[in-house]
Amino acid sequence: MVKYGLDYTRCRWILPLLLGIGVIFGIIALAGRGWLESQTLPYVHQASLWESCRRPEQGGEWTCESLMGHAWGRAAAATYLVGFILLVICFALAIIAFAIDTLRFNFIRGIGGLLFVAAVFSIMGLVIYPVKFSTEIKLTGINMFSWAYGFGWTTAIMEICLGFFFCCLPNYEDQILGNVKPTYFYSSP
């Protein structure tokens, strides 16, 4: 952002925008029913973070069981939800930080640290879920962790990457605010 001459006033909303996209991906992961799905016909299993649904045959009625009855289900949902709530808090703080005319760079570094904590909680939930699901729930046929689970991992990766950006941005404070005298490379003939 700094090295190639992008002006701070033009690019100041890129990081909060990326955090907003991460929040949208987190909502999709929390609400999506595609954490685990049957891969081949007949499609007999579908699961979300909250429940596991089965049907005996193609065209049959789905029967759902809540995963909140299992301790690991509550742990996976709680840790992923805590990571998501921290991401929403970081999004709100980033909007506040970048809306103020005088940018507080230590405040931005704190947002980066909080994003790393959010990533740890999200990853804990994303690891607990498949490990315990595949050992505790009887699976039939070929199953795959699907699109909503992928959105969860995308959110966690975005939290890590944006955490680095928010932590490293204060290192370029003078360049961003325009306090550095430009260097001209001119050689006389």
UniProtKB/TrEMBL annotation:
A Gene Ontology BP annotation from the UniProt entry: apoptotic process
Stretches that traverse the bilayer: 12-32, 77-100, 107-131, 151-172
Topological type in the membrane: Multi-pass membrane protein
Domain of life: Eukaryota
One cellular component (GO) term of this entry: cytoplasm
Locations listed in the record: Cell junction, Desmosome; Cell membrane; Cytoplasm
Entry keyword set: Apoptosis, Cell adhesion, Cell junction, Cell membrane, Cytoplasm, Membrane, Transmembrane, Transmembrane helix
Gene3D superfamilies named among the record's database cross-references: 1.20.140.150
Alphabetical list of InterPro entries matching this protein: P53_induced (IPR015664), PMP22/EMP/MP20/Claudin (IPR004031)
Family note: Belongs to the TMEM47 family.
Protein name (Swiss-Prot/TrEMBL): p53 apoptosis effector related to PMP-22
Organism: Aramus guarauna
Gene: Perp_1
